[in-house]
Amino acid sequence: MKKKESDQPTSWEEEVWESPPLMARSHIKHDTFLNCWCPQCGVGLNEGDKAVFEIVNQQGQVGISRIAAYLNVLEQESTLQIDDDEELSDVRCPHCHASLIEPGRRCRQDGCKMAAIHVSISNSLRLKLISCTRQSCRWYEMSDEDNERLILRDSHEW
Q1: Please, are residues 141 and 150 in contact by the beta-carbon 8 Å criterion?
Q2: 17, 48, 117, 152: least surrounded by Cβ within 10 Å?
Q3: 100: helix, coil or strand?
Q4: What is the C-alpha end-to-end distance of the chain, expressed in Å?
């Protein structure tokens, strides 16, 4: 699909919603800090301003990845060399070492595996955020229920 009067393709948000994109509808700031937790053991994944994960590359090497814990800020550092187009073999909790991969879920953009964590702005309500395991992919999803919680104007979370 292409924008009218333009050769540029529409964004996925424009294809899904006729209304303004999620960030505008929810009044969420682009760089809102996210508290992150493991959905398996419940232990926090944040260290300073980064969320920390144990990662496994396609060669089976295990390392640590630190990702900016801010909404739509894509800064990342890793102890392993990961190419932009490389799909990780696994993403794990650094505390309980449980896999965060969502069985049967695939990224709509490129078909890669998806990993899930719990996030919130405060410690009260945790929302499930599922994202692609390929470094250069920016695809993420939330359940319809969590998405509705996210966009409520009166939500104490935002």
Answers
A1: no
A2: 48
A3: coil
A4: 32
| Domain boundary assignment for the chain | 28-151
CB-CB contact of 151 with 22 (8 Å): yes
Is 3 exposed, middle or buried, given 0-12, 13-18 or 19+ CB atoms closer than 10 A?
exposed
Using alpha carbons, select from 53, 44, 33 the residue that is nearest to residue 118.
Answer: 44
| β-bridge mates for residue 67, sequence order | 51, 76
Judged on CB neighbours under 10 Å (0-12, 13-18, 19+), 7 is exposed
In order along its 158 residues, the chain shows pLDDT tens digits of: 444 455 555 555 555 444 444 444 444 555 678 899 999 999 999 999 999 999 999 999 999 999 998 877 778 899 998 887 889 999 999 999 999 999 999 988 889 999 999 988 765 688 888 888 987 887 878 787 877 776 554 445 44
The contacts of residue 145 (CB under 8 Å, 6+ apart) are none
For residues 17 and 99, what is the distance between their CA atoms, to the nearest angstrom? Answer: 32
Q: Kindly report the CA angle at 120 between 100 and 47, in degrees rounded to 5?
A: 65
- Check: CB of residue 100 under 8 Å from CB of residue 92: yes
Rounded to 5 degrees, φ, ψ at 72 are 60, 20
